[in-house]
Amino acid sequence: MVNKKQIRGVYLVTDRPLCIHHNLAEVVKLAALGGVSFVQLREKETDSRTFLELAKHLIEILRPFSIPLLINDRLDICLAAGAEGVHLGQSDLPWWEARRILGEQAILGLSLETKEDYFSLIHTHPKPELDYLAVSPVFDTNTKTNTKPAWGLMGVTWLKNQTNLPIVAIGGIKESNAEAVIEAGADSLAVVSAICSAKDPKLATENLSKKFHSIKE
Q1: What band does 131 get if pLDDT is binned at 50, 70 and 90?
Q2: Are 139 and 173 contacting, i.e. CB atoms less than 8 angstroms apart?
Q3: Taking the C-alpha atoms of 58, 59, 62 and 65 in order, what is their torsion angle to the nearest 10 degrees?
Q4: How far apart are CA 197 and CA 187, in angstroms?
Q5: Could you tell me the residue ranges of all domains in the chain?
Q6: Are 9 and 212 in contact, with CB atoms under 8 Å apart?
Q7: Fewer CB in 10 Å around end: N or C, the chain?
Q8: Which parts are annotated binding residues?
């Protein structure tokens, strides 16, 4: 079981159409070899049965590395596959219902698209039973559509100063801006195309991880 207080490092969010040099399973295994800390399976278009099969396959790949698999949005897929947790957005199943169903040991993350999302969260739940908050998006990106204006680096710092929960930064993050995002306060870097579309996902993961640990350690 992952130490949920240590949500840090490189966090891969999958996108099969962006896996242009390797298939999804290969990308995930290479990222694991490169030192990725978490993997989130995100499938916006596929049917439920395929989603479940993918989740089970990735769990088998990640198990030898003791790397948790989180499921984007779908609590049913998380439960059926035996994944370690879910990542939820503002329009998904309420996070407190997910916590009730999954229990205390599951990893549960929530995306915040605006400062108002944060204020609403703490107004209703001053001490939310969440394992991390995701700043989404930090920068404008084609992989996250229909989102609110980007938070920017100042937004990451603002949220870091508001909460004791770990901050996962996602949206437009790549090797060239990773250090700035970490220095702004991110505890974890969630990346999509920077790993999924890389010719060498293992090397891409290693490079991002080195930047993270050179600053945080």
Answers
A1: very high
A2: yes
A3: 180
A4: 23
A5: 7-216
A6: yes
A7: C
A8: 40-44, 72-73, 92, 111, 141-144, 172, 192-193
pTM check: above 0.90: yes
Three-state SS string across the chain, please?
CCCHHHCCEEEEECCHHHCCCCCHHHHHHHHHHCCCCEEEECCCCCCHHHHHHHHHHHHHHHHHHCCCEEEECCHHHHHHHCCCEEEECCCCCCHHHHHHHHCCCCEEEEEECCHHHHHHHHHHCCCCCCCEEEECCCCCCCCCCCCCCCCHHHHHHHHHHHCCCCEEEECCCCCCCHHHHHHHCCCEEEECHHHHCCCCHHHHHHHHHHHHHHHHC
The CA distance from 154 to 183, in Å, is 11
Could you give the CA distance from residue 30 to residue 9 in angstroms, rounded to a whole number? 16
**Binding-site residues for Mg(2+):** 73, 92
pLDDT tens by residue, 24-78? 999 999 999 999 999 999 999 999 999 999 999 999 999 999 999 999 999 999 9
